[in-house]
Amino acid sequence: MPKLRYAAWILIAASPWGCSPGGPSPAAVAKVLAHELAAHGGASRVAGESLLEPRTLAKFYAARRSMPAWDRNGVAEITQSIRGVERDGLVPADYHLAAIGKLAAANGAGDAATAARLDILMSDAVAAMADHMHYGRVQPARLNPEWNADPRDGAPPLETTLAAIAGGGSVHTAIERQRPDHFIYRGLLETYDHLRTIVANGGWPRVPAGRKLVPGVRDARIPVVRRRLRVSGEFDGQGGADSTRYDPALRTAVGLFQARHRLDDTGAIDAATVAAMNVSAVDRTLQVRANLERARWVLGGLGGDFMLVNLPAFKAYRIRDGRNIWEARTQIGQEALQTPTFRADIRTVVFNPDWTVPPTVIAQELLADMRDGKDILGDKGLVLYDNHNTVVDPKTVDWKTATPETFPYTIRQPAGDDNALGKVKFLFPNKYAIYLHDTPSRQLFAASRRTFSHGCIRIENPLELAEVLLRDQGWDAARIQSVIASGETQNVELQKPVPILIVYWTVSVGASGEVRYADDIYHLDPPLLAALGATR
Fold this sequence. Notes:
Largest sheet: 8 strands, mixed, barrel
Mean pLDDT: 89
Distance between the termini: 43 Å
Radius of gyration: 29 Å
Helix content: 25-40%
Strand order of the largest sheet: 3-4-5-14-12-11-6-15
Low-confidence stretches: 1-21
Structural class: alpha+beta
Shape: globular
């Protein structure tokens, strides 16, 4: 993009609003435009509209010496782009749609003030759309003050992006290119479009409550189930719409529905399956809308090589070259000790790790047990250390008076079969002290709702993951088992750190395009939808 400050006066010859006879001169428009932006030390409202990106506009127009940026063709393209953001779950009205239309209609009178205000609102709309389409409408830290990954870090200044769009070709094409180009986002877009069509056509029928239905039975509700699954796309068989028998074609459709909604594929139409079927098409659309926003927060620059942990799905995935090459079930934080969402890089695999008990566990569990006379340290093989890293006999501690604020000791569990971290952990530096690890509590992976940990993420089959991550460094299963058998702690640095996303996606898209829904276990969808201005 050429430096606008030196090219600004060239634009006078191609005036956006001075092309038609009797139109305002570029200088007149520029004068009003500068006054509008300078009002009250920097305008926040123009033509009754609150500006979305006032700082960006100030820098953008300063570089142009307040010269207007858009011609009459720009009005049509920008309006088209504003209407198009609805596809991404954004609201066209948020981007001055009505005001731009009103000012554009009035602009034929040759009024410099109208032309200037129209130009400002169009620039604001373009800047905001470019930013929101790429990085998200809602700042994640507004909903979670602990959020650690700003997707805008390292990105070009927004005024630079705005200048490139204004000085380029098709505005609409430029805005479309801001959309994340990732299979996850594309899959969510397709699902959102499909659900909006279903909503526009009246949604799907509600399945009445009743007894559990298994293949082969007859029941008056079977035709309703068949119609319900036909609308959402799981059933495409030729069974009679009025047939009351639970036939094989419907059994296949029910299994697909259960898989898509992370239910056990039993084939039985039970209470949980009926409850999932009776989530309305409107509510499913809103659910996808929330996850489009979450995807925008983290997908920028991600590429096709990463690790993903989806908390509500209780699953972890290793994606390489855009393909899912490994996955496993997880156990995550209890609702009172929620696992946070963030982005980091896996850097180290630790075999035979010891475990330093977190302060929260000491405060909430261990001290209370020790005050009650329970030998929790001895039962769990925990060792007490002072601030000189010297072992302390627990019998010398006055547990009755110990408090979280005054407790001066560190508690560790040595490596071993009973260690809380199992045989391996995976480190990715972050301020939450969260990591992936093995666990001796493997029986808990059989549960459907696996909120058991204090915040860290327990991984099923973690030695497989270690092999997947270290294979390119000469590690195989035999070498890993040899290190484990030694009992010695060994840190292995990854030569190429792997990006890891800890995400909260209640709707997700797999590498092969399959869409899955999950329960909102931490109840985070409603506040996000409220921040997006979503209504039923």
